Amino acid sequence: MQSANVNRLTPYLFLAPAALIMAVALLYPIGYMIYASFLDWNPSQRIGEADFVGLRNYVNLLSDAAFLESFWVTIKFAAIVVSVEMFIGVGLALLLDRNIRGMSLLRTLFILPMMIAPIVVGLMWRYMYHPTVGIFNRTLKSLGFETVPWLSDGSWAFASVVIADVWQWTPFIFILSLAALQSLPQSAMEASRIDGATGWQQIIHIKLPLMMPVLIVTLLLRLIDAFKVLEVILVLTNGGPGLSTEILSLRISRTASEFRELGEAAAMSNFLLILLMLLTFGMFFYNKAVEVRAARLRAAAEED
Amino acid sequence: MPKITFDQVAKSYGSVEVLPPFDLALDDGEFTVLVGPSGCGKSTTLRMLAGLETLSGGEIFFDEKPISKLEPKDRDLAMVFQDYALYPHMTIAKNMSFALRLARAPKSEIEEKVRRVAEMLNIAPLLDRKPAELSGGQRQRVAMGRALVRDAGTFLFDEPLSNLDAKLRGKMRAELAEMRDTIDKNMVYVTHDQVEAMTLGDRIVVMSDGLIQQQGTPEELFKSPVNKFVAGFIGSPSMNFIDGELVDDDGKTWVHGDGFKLPLDLDISARMNDVQTRAVTVGLRPSSLTTDISRGAPIELKVVVSEYLGAQSVLVTRCGGADVLVETQSTSPVRAGSVQTFGVLTNEIMIFDKASGLRL
């Protein structure tokens, strides 16, 4: 009897350390942040001394033009980089899904950018974008073209951070797409060739639809990441010029450290958190729906 | 419905030669079965015909036209795959109409063709489902239907029944046989199952180790195999082989071995006079042995197991060191463990050269 009880408890005992760390390292700070978002709190105060202001921080956010601007920049950034990365990543995967000599080496080279720390990526690109000694402007100049204000003009700066992000994260989509492609049923491909599909028709009618589940998960993962991006932009432009590249996480960090408004920063963080949660739930429910559908289909097939 | 000719077609992967150059001619409107054990090159042959594999040498002609450089879609053929190869994301109707839709056939024509084939194959109620919602047998039919809708000149089947259970396989085999008679097209069918080959083929091509061993009608292959491999492969239960020696005695030619001595019929012994070798392998079909000893030359066999199959039984017996299968009517039961005398129908004895395996 007693040993049965112990046996039943065993899994929870094993889970306990992880649960504890989760609670301390995740739930506590989040709870703290949520609480802080209802306070008018500056860093010189202890949290107990801050005034409770209810939803004022949130209401302020909605009328804060700078916040709305950076929210818009974030949306724009995420939408553009993820679209471009999906397009190039999937395209590359479709092109390179074949047996060529040295493919494994090529694959490793392709995913190299992904393995570099974002700060380093930022520094690297900052040197390359440098107005006078950077490789881009030097090359342009030597070819007789006008130099480009990579990081000093609003639109160019936005394009520059997009390029850097695309450079770093396209490989992620590339390898996942390639893996998806290579696990597609070969005989279906052959059947489509016999059915008369050209290369393009095969991609459009067979390959892409069959890759879709993987592509959707990849898209959501990248979207979540793109909303949280910080380091590369911090190093490249620090949000400037003006607010042209000030994405939300940068805005949050500046609100906390420069403007010393911890409550406001916490509210922004919550805002971003809710946005990401929505995306995550979207992914979760998508997966769930796929699983349920597969289970239902299996059941239906076995009945016959 | 072209006449298909393989002219010195060969296939190798790197330095590994899987198919040495061979010739093969498939007549217009014929149902040809390529049969052989796994790895004999039959699927590769079919896939080269389909255009899914390149040729390493030689040429394939449809009538007089060389086709080895043509894309699969330009060869006017349809194919049924072993794993069905349905498009998982499309409904059955879409699966079946894919080729027609790619060819931009008019919508009404597509609908009409799909409906007609679906009715023929009894899959009309499934048209809105997806492949995952179908059982194995239904998927098989859809794969068949997808090929039929194409209305191509040549149909290729790559072991289409091997993923089905025995009962369903038998049923589908019968349906295929019926289809063969109603559809006047070239059909090339690959299988490792000699029963499928025998029941379906107008002509059977037996392959082994990348070589065509023999081709002919089912009856030709059964009655006059050219070598031991074909003799052993065609027929179920398969042929018994016992090593022996040719001896002349009493004015007749006999084949003599461990535990048996059988006289040869005149026409066989006449052929034996022309050959040098005396070491031979005797081939006896299980059906060439009978419990009625008055009908043949006597042979003593020790019955080891009696496998009751219903109307018939298969006896596993031993002759010297060799296992010999005997097919008998179950009405005359034979007790396991006993030594019995059986009659050998001497006109059905086949003699093979022991060294080369060729039929003498």
Automatic annotation (TrEMBL), chain A:
<feature type="transmembrane region" description="Helical">
    <location>
        <begin position="71"/>
        <end position="96"/>
    </location>
</feature>
<feature type="domain" description="ABC transmembrane type-1">
    <location>
        <begin position="71"/>
        <end position="283"/>
    </location>
</feature>
<dbReference type="GO" id="GO:0055085">
    <property type="term" value="P:transmembrane transport"/>
</dbReference>
<feature type="transmembrane region" description="Helical">
    <location>
        <begin position="265"/>
        <end position="286"/>
    </location>
</feature>
<keyword id="KW-0813">Transport</keyword>
<dbReference type="InterPro" id="IPR035906">
    <property type="entry name" value="MetI-like_sf"/>
</dbReference>
<dbReference type="GO" id="GO:0005886">
    <property type="term" value="C:plasma membrane"/>
</dbReference>
<feature type="transmembrane region" description="Helical">
    <location>
        <begin position="202"/>
        <end position="224"/>
    </location>
</feature>
<feature type="transmembrane region" description="Helical">
    <location>
        <begin position="108"/>
        <end position="128"/>
    </location>
</feature>
<protein>
    <submittedName>
        <fullName>Carbohydrate ABC transporter membrane protein 1 (CUT1 family)</fullName>
    </submittedName>
</protein>
<keyword id="KW-0812">Transmembrane</keyword>
<keyword id="KW-1003">Cell membrane</keyword>
<keyword id="KW-0472">Membrane</keyword>
<dbReference type="InterPro" id="IPR000515">
    <property type="entry name" value="MetI-like"/>
</dbReference>
<feature type="transmembrane region" description="Helical">
    <location>
        <begin position="156"/>
        <end position="181"/>
    </location>
</feature>
<keyword id="KW-1133">Transmembrane helix</keyword>
<comment type="similarity">
    <text>Belongs to the binding-protein-dependent transport system permease family.</text>
</comment>
<feature type="transmembrane region" description="Helical">
    <location>
        <begin position="12"/>
        <end position="35"/>
    </location>
</feature>
<dbReference type="Pfam" id="PF00528">
    <property type="entry name" value="BPD_transp_1"/>
</dbReference>
Automatic annotation (TrEMBL), chain B:
<dbReference type="GO" id="GO:0008643">
    <property type="term" value="P:carbohydrate transport"/>
</dbReference>
<dbReference type="InterPro" id="IPR040582">
    <property type="entry name" value="OB_MalK-like"/>
</dbReference>
<dbReference type="InterPro" id="IPR003593">
    <property type="entry name" value="AAA+_ATPase"/>
</dbReference>
<dbReference type="GO" id="GO:0140359">
    <property type="term" value="F:ABC-type transporter activity"/>
</dbReference>
<dbReference type="InterPro" id="IPR027417">
    <property type="entry name" value="P-loop_NTPase"/>
</dbReference>
<feature type="domain" description="ABC transporter">
    <location>
        <begin position="4"/>
        <end position="234"/>
    </location>
</feature>
<keyword id="KW-0067">ATP-binding</keyword>
<dbReference type="Pfam" id="PF17912">
    <property type="entry name" value="OB_MalK"/>
</dbReference>
<protein>
    <submittedName>
        <fullName>Carbohydrate ABC transporter ATP-binding protein (CUT1 family)</fullName>
    </submittedName>
</protein>
<dbReference type="InterPro" id="IPR008995">
    <property type="entry name" value="Mo/tungstate-bd_C_term_dom"/>
</dbReference>
<comment type="similarity">
    <text>Belongs to the ABC transporter superfamily.</text>
</comment>
<dbReference type="GO" id="GO:0016887">
    <property type="term" value="F:ATP hydrolysis activity"/>
</dbReference>
<keyword id="KW-0813">Transport</keyword>
<keyword id="KW-0547">Nucleotide-binding</keyword>
<dbReference type="InterPro" id="IPR003439">
    <property type="entry name" value="ABC_transporter-like_ATP-bd"/>
</dbReference>
<dbReference type="InterPro" id="IPR015855">
    <property type="entry name" value="ABC_transpr_MalK-like"/>
</dbReference>
<dbReference type="InterPro" id="IPR047641">
    <property type="entry name" value="ABC_transpr_MalK/UgpC-like"/>
</dbReference>
<dbReference type="Pfam" id="PF00005">
    <property type="entry name" value="ABC_tran"/>
</dbReference>
<dbReference type="InterPro" id="IPR017871">
    <property type="entry name" value="ABC_transporter-like_CS"/>
</dbReference>
<dbReference type="GO" id="GO:0005524">
    <property type="term" value="F:ATP binding"/>
</dbReference>
<dbReference type="GO" id="GO:0055052">
    <property type="term" value="C:ATP-binding cassette (ABC) transporter complex, substrate-binding subunit-containing"/>
</dbReference>
<dbReference type="InterPro" id="IPR012340">
    <property type="entry name" value="NA-bd_OB-fold"/>
</dbReference>
